[in-house]
């Protein structure tokens, strides 16, 4: 519990003020989120879990795009969860989206949501903020249904963009404890091979973002 409290305090310190204008600014550079949501293909009455749900922006969009889905999300930051709860209520979706506090690297959805597994699990620009991001992928796979999929979008390595752009972007992201994961593809490929899970990996917008889907 001390680990969770420490992580929550760190995230609250970063986002206590930013959460009030987070969605207004992030829409300009968190690219690929709506593409991920459109590709979820949630089965009838399927369950969706967002790891690191932040302000609730994605969960609201998922609930609207896939109205038959049962949506769940958790975050380590209490401040973000307060904003998410208010945003979801304003959208009239409090009855369709359930929230909880939790650590992405070690969570149990049964006490959180009374669910043991999910058909779709979403990481939207969160792996670059989770120190134990490899553990977070494993924890998600542990609660993925037998026909489920993990959908990921995050910062790429800007591989087909100018070097100066990468330097400026990564320097700015570091101010918010965001670290694009250069080893993401290799880690996912190794994980997929070990667990017999097909992997789809796509570089978006000249490498600005990377998108991945791990399937059972």
Automatic annotation (TrEMBL):
Q: Which InterPro entries match?
A: Methyltransf_25, SAM-dependent_MTases_sf
Indicate yes or no for the key word Metal-binding.
no
Molecular function as annotated in GO: methyltransferase activity
Q: What keywords sit in the KW lines?
A: Methyltransferase, Transferase
| Classification via Pfam families | Methyltransf_25 (PF13649)
Which GO biological process categories is it annotated with? methylation
Instruction: Give the Methyltransferase domain ranges.
Output: 48-148
Q: What is this protein called?
A: S-adenosylmethionine-diacylgycerolhomoserine-N-methyltransferase
């Amino acid at each position: 519990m001390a680990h969770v409290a420490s992580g929550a305090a760190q995230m609250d310190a970063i986002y206590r003020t930013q959460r009030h204008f987070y969605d207004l600014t992030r829409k300009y550079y968190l690219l690929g989120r709506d593409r991920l949501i459109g590709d979820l293909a949630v089965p009838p009455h399927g369950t969706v879990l967002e790891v690191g749900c932040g302000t609730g922006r994605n969960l609201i969009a998922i609930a609207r795009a896939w109205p038959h889905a049962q949506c769940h999300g958790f975050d380590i930051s209490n401040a973000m969860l307060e904003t998410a709860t208010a945003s979801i209520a304003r959208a009239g979706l409090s009855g369709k989206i359930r929230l909880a506090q939790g650590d992405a690297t070690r969570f149990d959805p049964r006490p959180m949501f009374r669910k043991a597994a999910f058909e779709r699990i979403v990481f939207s620009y969160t792996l670059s903020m989770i120190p134990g991001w490899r553990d977070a992928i494993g924890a998600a796979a542990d609660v993925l249904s037998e026909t489920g999929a993990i959908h990921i979008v995050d910062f790429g390595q800007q591989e087909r963009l100018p070097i100066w752009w990468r330097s400026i972007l990564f320097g700015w992201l570091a101010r918010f404890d965001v670290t694009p994961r250069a080893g993401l593809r290799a880690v996912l490929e190794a994980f997929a091979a070990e667990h017999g899970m097909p992997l789809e990996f796509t570089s978006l917008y000249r490498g600005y973002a990377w998108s991945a889907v791990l399937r059972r």
